[in-house]
Design brief:
alpha+beta, Alpha-D-Glucose-1,6-Bisphosphate, Chain A, domain 4, seven-stranded antiparallel sheet
Length: 155
């Protein structure tokens, strides 16, 4: 099973970061490189507890679909999305948001497993772990660019 943690500091209050992290449009924009789009379920707003969305994206030259559900939701500090259908044997992504002064520390904990027994575990270790870290890091950089406070012209 693959597992990783990423920590990202964003110059915005936790509620803004929490809400943006659940927004389907923001997510889609952050995954433009994979041409990811919401094709079923909630496709045009922020997600809440019990909502599901089916994503369609291109990774490794192949089109994939994954349906994820919000299975835990504690605004503005925590939510979890889990795969309900898709390419993984299992997928769980915890999102935590903690105030630190005027900023938010966002912590992503992702646990995933792939099918196909020993061959799947080998692919997971050699390729997929690094790919998933980079994918979530790219998403977080997009959130940071979108939400970081910018000094005004008067500053």
């Amino acid at each position: 099973m693959g597992k990783f943690d990423l920590v990202t500091r964003i110059a915005a209050e936790p509620r803004r970061v929490f809400e943006a992290s659940l927004d389907v449009g923001v997510h889609t924009a952050s995954m433009a490189g994979a041409r990811e789009e919401a094709v079923a379920g909630v496709t045009d707003r922020g997600l809440v507890l019990g909502d599901s969305v089916t994503w369609r994206a291109r990774h490794f030259g192949v089109w994939w679909r994954m349906t994820a559900e919000i299975t835990a939701y504690e605004p503005p500090g925590f939510f979890v999305d889990e795969q309900r259908r898709g390419p993984f044997r299992s997928w769980r992504h915890e999102h935590r948001f903690t105030a630190d002064g005027d900023d938010t520390v966002m912590r992503d904990t992702v646990e995933f497993a792939v099918p196909f027994g020993p061959v799947g575990r080998l692919v997971e270790a050699l390729v997929l772990q690094r790919y998933m870290v980079r994918l979530i890091d790219d998403r977080n950089r997009h959130l940071k660019q979108t939400l970081d406070r910018r000094p005004s012209a008067a500053d």
